[in-house]
Amino acid sequence: MGARTRIVAFATGLLALSGTAARAASIVAEVDHSEVATDGQIVLTVTVEGTGGSEPVLPPLADFQVFSQGQSHQVQMINGSVTSSVAYNYVLVPKKPGTFQIAPITAEIGGQRMSSSPLTITVTAPGHIAGKGAKERDVYATATVSNDSPFVSELVIYTLRLLHRVQITNATAGEQTFPGLVSRDLGKWRDYETVIDGRRYAVNERKVALSAPQPGTITIEPATFSADVPMRGNKRRGSHFDDFFGDPFGDFFGSVATEKHVVRAPALELHVKPLPPAPTGFGGLVGQYTLRASLPKANLRVGESATLTVTIEGAGNTASMPDPEMDIPRGFKVYDDKPVTSVEDSEAGVRSKKILSRALVPAAVGRYVLTLAPLVYFDPKAGAYRSAQVEPVTVDVAAGQEPEQLHLVELAGPRTGKTAVHVLADDILPIYKRADAIVPRTLPVALMSLVVPAGLLPLLSFLSCWTYLGLQRNQGASLRRRRRRRALSQALAGLSSARRQRASGHAAEMAHKSLRGYFGDKLGLCAEALTRNDIVAQLGALHVPEPLVTTIAVHIDHLERAQYGAQTDSSIDPGALRPLAKVLKEIDKAIDIGQKAGPRA
Amino acid sequence: MKNQSARAIAAAVLLLLSPMQVRGANESQGEPVERWVQANAAFEAGDYPRAAALYESLAREHLDNGRVSFNWGNALLRMGQVGRAIAAYRHALTRQPRDADIKANLAFARKSAKDAVVPFEPSPVAQTLFFWHYSSSTRELWVTALVANALLWLALCLRMFRRRDALVWVAALAAAVLLASGGSLLVRHRWPVQVAVVTVPETNVYSGTSTDSVVRFVLHEGTEAQWIDAEPDWVRIALSDGKQGWLKADSVTLVDAD
Description:
The complex is a heterodimer of chains A (601) and B (258). By secondary structure, chain A is of the alpha+beta class. In chain A, 29% of the residues lie in helices and 35% in strands. Chain A has 4 domains: 3-124, Immunoglobulins (Immunoglobulin-like); 134-272, Immunoglobulin-like, CATH 2.60.40; 285-404, Immunoglobulin-like, CATH 2.60.40; 473-597, Up-down Bundle (Four Helix Bundle (Hemerythrin (Met), subunit A)), CATH 1.20.120. In chain A, helix 6 (442-500) packs antiparallel against helix 7 (507-523), helix 7 (507-523) crosses helix 9 (546-564) and helix 9 (546-564) crosses helix 10. Chain A is elongated and about 180 Å long. Chain B is of the alpha+beta class. Chain B has 3 domains: 2-111, Alpha Horseshoe (Serine Threonine Protein Phosphatase 5, Tetratricopeptide repeat); 128-190; 194-256, SH3 Domains (SH3 type barrels), CATH 2.30.30.40. Helix content of chain B is 59%, strand content 15%. Chain B contains 10 helices and 7 strands. In chain B, helix 3 packs antiparallel against helix 4. The A-B interface holds A 426-444, 446-447, 450-451, 453-455, 457-459, 461-462, 465-466, 469 and B 9, 12-13, 16-17, 20, 23-25, 27-28, 30, 32-33, 36-37, 40, 43, 58, 61-68, 70-71, 74-75, 77, 101, 104-105, 108-109, 111, 139, 142, 145-146, 149-154, 156-157, 160-161.
């Protein structure tokens, strides 16, 4: 047979199958039994026959917990007629007794919506079904509390057990929460065996410590377990210890059929009672507690350290275990250590211990009594408040050793064994309190207004000084210029006056003075101190022609002789002063030229 | 004549200063000091919100020499507002740049910041080279510049009358100090460096100025980043590792970095 022939044959077969299935479309819902106890379960099977069937839609089942158990496919060929079907399995766990109707279950098959017939389920109280539910009793769950009417904050042990006397696999526990309660798991699941009514059961057990923060009635929701249980008839009823020997061939080939089984522990109610009015010092501690205090040495020296250890220990709620209060005398330095809290979970409940250590260093000699405040707690067993107390601790403090010796020992000893300084805690540095933190309200404005004058004032001062000096310099220069400009005219005027003073006898003196005054003004020098030689030298430096210099020198000599010599003014010929005026004019021009050209080097 | 001029200048400066000092002394006994005392009392009593409000009012009125912001930061830190506390401490450091207490509390507050981001700080090289810029407050720089300015022109003035070499050296030194302090003031005024401190528990940093843009990363309270740019209601920041983005302006507090 070729490949093409095989494909054609397979397709023909599929067509035949689908056509047959379409003709047999139906939906059937059935339960394994219609009456069940609240601690039992029923298996609902919905069979959808026909090709293209969708998953059935269950109606609302508020009175049951529903667990899907998967599906199985089946194809049958009877007398050439092929039928395919899918069976959907559900486990229904009833929540309460009563008679309940399961509405028709619908599914879409081959484009048609089809419905099953309704079902009626009767749920009875636990154990009311005589001769039934035996299968359920192979696997069942229980839940108990150590005290269903505890006080607020009293610890209650909730015990959840799964019991089975057949081998179960894939056992899982549903997640359980405890609304309104404070819970604490007491270890892992525990496995053991027990005998109930002459039957041996394997037990999986879990304990949870619960406490209620508020009074009132609190319901603990039922816990559920699911597991694969061997199907009835496929396996011999008996102990799970017989599994190995029960059906050696079945076990060997792994052919033991199982079904998913869901069991549920009953719901429980806690009636939480309020605590009686609390006495002074009660910090919310509920349970049974003891208080201890110990100091390793009753005799200390000043500066010697001893650790006072206070221990609170007991069974009960650890949430509100307080720090014990100590009354330490003023003669001690106290160094607190971090409290150590340990909690030990046990089958009986929770035991907790809190250890508080304080290093005490006496600072003065004397006898001291260390007292501890009593620990007030509520004892739920007695239903009353208790007070745990310890005897005061007496300490005798003697004087310390000689400080000099200690000093010597410290110096002589090697620098070893030093311990690192560990920061125990850190915090911010404290606030600043001095009022100088506040800047006066006017100071910023004052500083800002000061900036401009403080910045400009030095500059203005400098500019003022500079201007002053400059003006001074300019003033001197202009004075020299004015003297130079007026030198000739004043000299000529002086010579003219000298000619007119012929009769008074002062002609030579006036002419000499005018001549020196001219040279002083023209050359910018002090006229009174000028000598003939100074004048000759200055004129030479200014490139005045030599004959003019010689001529003026002769005139100066003549005037000086007439003024200081033996001859009198009458010997001065007034007409001789006229050529002197002419010489001065020529010299004046020569000096101007020489001053513009610059002095001779 | 010269001595008379110097005395006249000194008298003028004293005349300018003296009324301010008198007014300042009177003002220190007024209302701000009362609020300061009340704030300290509230802090000691554990009323941190009231203390913080009073410290803040003093700081906002520019009556703070750094200590007020320091106390304000302490109150905010006690209130659990780490971001605002860091901002207050940083503000205090701008007034008291060398104060060890402020630095210690700032370091303590930074430990509470959630993000592992190195706080924005100038490079150590820059801090060494321009030590005066990073270790002086603006007020100190102003005072230094004014004193150097006065010294410079005074030395030059005296140099015109007395030709001493020492005056040249004094003038040169004053000119250098004036240049340094004036340059720092110019840099602070012209190119201010600001730090954005996150003051909300958590804030998204977007790629743009819209909440529809991509959230680049998330910052938490107390993180310090460099301020780069601003748009209405938005601030652009850069982390020390180079990451940049925009965040809502109301989720940060801007503080001067120097």
